[in-house]
Amino acid sequence: LSQDELKKIAAYKAVEFVESGMVLGLGTGSTAKHAIDRIGELLRQGKLANIVGIPTSTQTHQQASSLGIPLSDLDAHPVLDLAIDGADEVDPDMNLVKGRGGSLLREKMIEGCCKKFVVIVDESKLVDYVGGSGLAMPVEIVPFCWRFTAQKLQTMFEDSGCVAKLRVSAEDGEAYVTDNGNFIIDLYFKKDIGDLKAAGDAMLRLAGVVEHGMFIDMATTLIVAGEMGVRMGMK
Ligand code: DER
User: Fold this and answer.
1) Which pathway does the UniProt entry assign to this protein (predicted)?
2) Mean pLDDT (the chain, rounded)
3) 171 is catalytic
4) ipTM for this model
């Protein structure tokens, strides 16, 4: 099975939690895309009704509206029944790294208001510790003096061999700009940063930091699709 087929299997499994009348957080990324497609299909077939979607990015807003999913926002729905989203990394305690798709702020706002947050991944996302994949742990920052903030973040985690890089957009090599008009600094760690809560709080104390991509104690349900089938974990 390809990675995308595994993502689709996990996504379809998560949509089984969706009931008519629910207010749903709609995630961002290639895995969540399958879940949103499936929700649109069930609405079209009349197997689901009266769903309200709260999109976590303009990209998801466009996909969901093209599927005819009714959309709203947190101002109208401050409490959601269920959110379904992917992740870049999942550690053994179901802590997540998210944001490589650039939507971490709206994802964290929306997924923090859900009664149930179902994370859908293929098995390649499982790590021993956050940052363990050697890939980025994203931090959304204000553009003002971004070099200053990037240096503060790198120094903060120098014991973990941290390297901080400004995310640039593939097209023009300019700084990537989030839906919220901010920049992203990608942090790369060589070692486990240890106490995630303390690390996250330390980052948030930097005035230029808006939000970080560690989703600690937020996921309630994890669906992992692998070659051996689909596994589900609950918190
Ligand atoms: O950017 C994000 O937070 C995405 O949800 C990401 O974590 C997962 O993206 P993928 O499903 O395309 O791997």
Assistant:
1) Carbohydrate degradation; pentose phosphate pathway; D-ribose 5-phosphate from D-ribulose 5-phosphate (non-oxidative stage): step 1/1
2) 97
3) no
4) 0.97
